[in-house]
Design goal:
alpha+beta; 4-stranded antiparallel sheet; about 25% helix
Length: about 180
């Protein structure tokens, strides 16, 4: 075999090994996010209300942005904190999101008859009942692109006054090439 053919085969083998190594050296990085939706409802306030808050992309996303192969929301949970009000305080409504500055909100989850007192007293972490996987995919796309996302709690209550924080925990995972 000629030295040129040997060199050509050697280069081909090295390139194949490098391509395979690139596929093998990936890692999944967990990047949890928490945001707070504060409900302050004085006596006599309307039963329907909306609360907004923004979630910005943390440094961990930007740090791995160029090497990121995929990004996904793995689950979402919520807890009720700092509750003040009647033991009978219940809310029903939805959690939605939109790109910051947009009014085109997409519903993540709906809920009925959440007893805030019980949830706060038990310190329960509850899985957010997301039924539309396209919503979580769209949320993941917005976060992966570096967009600030506005979250909205649109709800109604049967019992004012009440004060509480709905802490939304978003578990995300990105696959990064090393």
């Amino acid at each position: 075999m000629s030295p040129f053919k040997t060199l050509q085969m050697l280069i081909t083998v090295v390139l194949l090994i490098m391509a395979a190594a690139t596929l093998m050296f990936k890692t999944n990085i967990q990047v949890p996010q928490t945001l707070s939706l504060r409900m302050d409802r004085p006596a006599g306030a309307p039963e329907q209300f909306s609360v907004l808050t923004n979630l910005s992309v943390p440094g961990e996303y930007r740090k791995h942005a160029k090497a990121m192969d995929s990004f996904r929301v793995t689950n979402m949970t919520y807890t009720i904190k700092d509750f003040e009000g009647s033991q009978d305080a219940v809310i029903s409504g939805e959690v939605a999101f939109a790109p910051s500055g947009s009014t085109s909100f997409q519903t993540l989850a709906t809920f009925e008859d959440l007893n805030l007192y019980d949830l706060a007293a038990n310190k329960a972490e509850v899985l957010l009942p997301v039924t539309d996987t396209t919503a979580t995919e769209k949320l993941a796309d917005l976060l992966q692109s570096g967009s600030t996302v506005t979250f909205r709690l649109n709800a109604g209550t049967n019992n004012n006054p009440l004060a509480a924080t709905l802490a939304l925990n978003i578990a995300t995972e990105m696959t990064v090439a090393l």
